[in-house]
Design goal:
2 domains, six-stranded mixed β-sheet, binds manganese (II) ion
Length: 332
Amino acid sequence: MTVAQLRFPGVDDAARDIRRLIDDAREIGCLAHKDADADSLGSALAFAEALREMGKRVHPLVPSPLPLALRYLPGFETITQEPPALDLLFTFDCATPHRFGDRAGLVETVPHVVNVDHHASNQGFGEINLVDPAASATGQIVYRLLRAMDCPISAETATNLYAALLTDTGSFRHENTTEAALRLAADLVALGADAGWVALKSYKSRSIPQLRLEGMATATTQSESGGRLVWSEITLAMLEEAGATLQEAEGVIDQLQTVDGMKIAIIFKEAGPELVKISVRSRDEVDSTQVCAPFGGGGHRRAAGAELREPLETARRRVLEVARALLRSLPS
Ligand SMILES: [Mn+2]
């Protein structure tokens, strides 16, 4: 099969080819990325549900560990731990196969792979690559694909896609809050998406340990380069003191990026003695992926991440050096 890099308005052509693959498939996998967010998992669950309503056998898949913070998404309980041999695999919101963690082998072994994503850095690892960097969320592409294939969109499917859109636009606060995104939100609500419930579960369901952890991390926030670089960290000791898990540390970066005048915000998360995860946010002319790329990470211009296999001390020093150099290179 030929590799086709399909970009919109190629969705109708892609839909025909994808529909053919679906019709021929017996066991279909829908794979989210490691440390799945609501865009990745919501897209996978939405697409799986739509295919199931068409009578297909579908298996939503997530690399371990299970992202329990997303257990509110409709169909979370259908995530398959031990899938049968698959003949068709859809991947969602993932630019490179290594983001599939312990499920990365599937991309190599399943005969047909369809890659659905909105990262500009997508490597096009699928047989069909439905990649649109202009889309605000992968869920937006899923919606257009389902529509192009005349698939049923249930209230549950709409809720999953709404969760994808709401969170990837930061509750319609990020720069990717386009007219298309806002219109899609209205369409999804019209289809039965429960907007209030998604907001409740996404932003108003934090645990006390999570709140304490955010307080500890924000209390130790560092600011340098005239306030343009803002960073903090979450250590294993802080997790223990707060009684929180690393998965509950996701919201801290959202606090850091609210600081007036910041250009780069970084949170360092100590995941083990020799493993540090970083999340980066940026503003204006700064591209977050430039902070993460030297460490094998990536993402979007405004939000990126990386994993460093080294102690927190050295990871912090090396990442901050890259961030400072980036700020120095800006015209003042
Ligand atoms: Mn996304």
